[in-house]
Amino acid sequence: MAINSSANPYQKVQAFAPATMANMGIGFDILGLAFQSLGDVVEVTHHDKPEVIITDIEGDNGLLPRNPHKNTASVAIMAYLKQLNRHDGIAITIKKGLPLASGLGSSASSAVAGVVAVNALLGYPMTKEELLPACMEGEALVSGYHADNIAPCLLGGLLLVDGITSDTVVRLPIHDNMHFALVTPNVAVLTSEARAVLPQMIPLKTMIKQTAGVARFFEALNRGDLVTLAKAMELDDVVEPARAHLMPYLYELREHAKAHGALGLVISGAGPTLCALCDSADVAKRVSSQMATFYEEQGLGAVAYATQINTEGARVILAE
Ligand code: HSE
Fold first, then answer.
1. Among 274, 11, 102, which Cα is nearest to 265's?
2. Rounded distance from Cα 270 to ligand 1 centre (Å)
3. Whether this model's pTM surpasses 0.90
4. Partners of 276 in the beta sheet?
5. 103 C-alpha vs ligand 1 centroid, how far in Å?
6. 12-172+310-319: which CATH number, 3.30.230.10, 3.40.250.10, 3.40.640.10, 3.40.50.1820?
């Protein structure tokens, strides 16, 4: 049954959802943060048949699926409607601000922006926190059930998340001097590919080292000690070594970033974006541009950003 759009408060809504970094190096699948400025926008309107359709996708060079059953945004919206037992007709337009397969949570961003927009279009039947499982269904299409991109994308901040509902999310302390230099080389790394290379078993000694790294991360974060925090982020002895061959010049860039003032550098999510923690805006700006120049000197195009943590997460930017 199609819903009469005049019963709904808005005819058109746009929502923005930010870029995110999963893992923070040491915290595979359980830590993630949202970045300021970068992100995707999804626009939603009512549609006269009880179905979710994709009207247009901008900025993806035609690479993303137009089939609504295969796109993270429309699948998440369908999961949201199913949860509410509604059969609304929804038309969506996705405006990609984030590069695909880049380690910046691009698929999560479209899924979250889509669900946040439709929730507003229908008059906010759910709270933001309640949207997490539906957003997760979209992300799971490409990356499995871990909410380390989805949760910070939706809710903002630096989060510990070890489940797919909002009661598994813990907001961690952040500090004003946490700045990030990002560089995305012009290569695509599919999350599925970056997960396929991971070990299924690890030795007990490695587990102890990894656990100690996570503990050091939390201890340093609580004290606001960014030098120790950056060292802890780099202590990952399981995921980074297995993926390093997929990230061009990872170890060279780590040294290069530090030579220009960064405190530490890790792979952002499943890569290939690299993320350096810095303690001022000036250093983050210098490090990001130096990292892009490094890639260009190796014959690889790259995009650089300097940013901070987005504490708000996804938001409605237009409702009319
Ligand atoms: N934690 C995930 C990974 C993030 O590193 O594979 C990408 O979905």
1. 274
2. 5
3. yes
4. 181, 265
5. 8
6. 3.30.230.10
